[in-house]
Fold:
Amino acid sequence: MSRAIAAALSLSLACACGRPHAPAEGMPGLSPLVLTELPSPPPADPLAAVRGDLDARYPAGTRIILKETDRSRLLSAGLSAAGGPAVSPDALRVLFAGKESPDGRWAIYESPLRGLPRRVADLGQDCADPAYISGGRVVFSCRVPGGGWALHTASLEPDGAGVRRISFGADDAADPFPLPDGRILFALLTGSGGLFTVNPDGTGVEAFAGLHGPRSGERAVQRPRPTGDGGVLFLSAAHGRSLHRVEMSRPMAARASLADGYRDVSSAEPLPDGSILLAADGGVYRLRPGGGPEPLPAGAAVYEAVPLVPSGPRKGRPSAVVMSMSTGTLLCVDADLSDGVTGPRRGAPRAARVEFLAAGPGESGALGGSPVEEDGSFLVDVPADRPLRVRTVDRQGRAIAVSGPLWVRPGEVRSCTGCHEGHERMAPNRPLRALTHDPRPLRPGTRESPP
Structure:
């Protein structure tokens, strides 16, 4: 335990005065709230939060409190700043990002409702956006060498025991949150932008929303949250910071705008009764279905508000990662399929070959390629745990289109419908020529025909 946290013990007890073992009590008709309180009004620039600037998002003096009917309890005692709270599935603990001194780095902490926070993940770089997942683990985003952000998981042991990196794209990944089926929903802050899903072991990354549509490439999205009725809420900072909803059944289709009239919505959390808990313009509100926002007496300069309610055990997913392998396998059904936005234009020549391009920071050039079968399919082994792009070329070696960044984990066998297809498109139901042979290794060159 650090000296700063130990020195804050009396302050923590004072904030939890009276009935030290009583359950947390909420305001009438509402559960207790976990709040991020700023020392001053929220930042004027909503994009500061999206760009990963934690010191701008949570300036010194920002704290995590438990707001009950008639009192508040400090959960981030001993920390210079804290933010981004997430409630445990049993509603007895709270995760958040914090730092012990103004010039220190951000790490992941967990606090009981009564007591002092303990550090559960510190990778030597700034970490933020924690959430509970299955198997006694947490997921969070963390800076990596080169300055970008990547997703990691860790067991709930002191100082980040069992830390695993699970995203390897070229763009910053942040704001992870579990879906009911066990996948993790997250946002890309740079590059193509939008929302994506990935399995807890880093396999099966897929575009979810904000791509392949009228608002494709929306970079300023954050805080995705699944609702209890099949929707997903998220914030968009393209014009101010506003609240939107898409449907799990068709996330690439039209979205609905919610909570219109607020200049800056900084957090939105679904409530069990179908309403939404908002932190907007420094205050806290409950937005009921079909009704207007109801102000809640939560105090001034509130940046984030999370209900203290149990959510039940998190669902897990089996792992397909084989860490002893250095490659993964990619199966594509038809390299010529296109969404008409990022892929080949109508009338483009058919792909004869695919080339895999290095897509990491400062990287360029082809790593190798493979021929495309006559039916458009290909099956190839590619380097694992590194950012890649796929370029399709015609029989003359001319580039047709380049995909967005992707990665595969060691031993993963990943399939996709096409290199540039819309992500709500079903794969054609037909035998694939690529499945008549073993995965091909990447080979240099620009022209090659299937044997």
In short: Residues 1-23, 212-217, 446-451 have pLDDT under 50 and may be disordered. The helical segments are 3-7, 9-15, 47-50, 54-57. The longest strand covers residues 81-87.
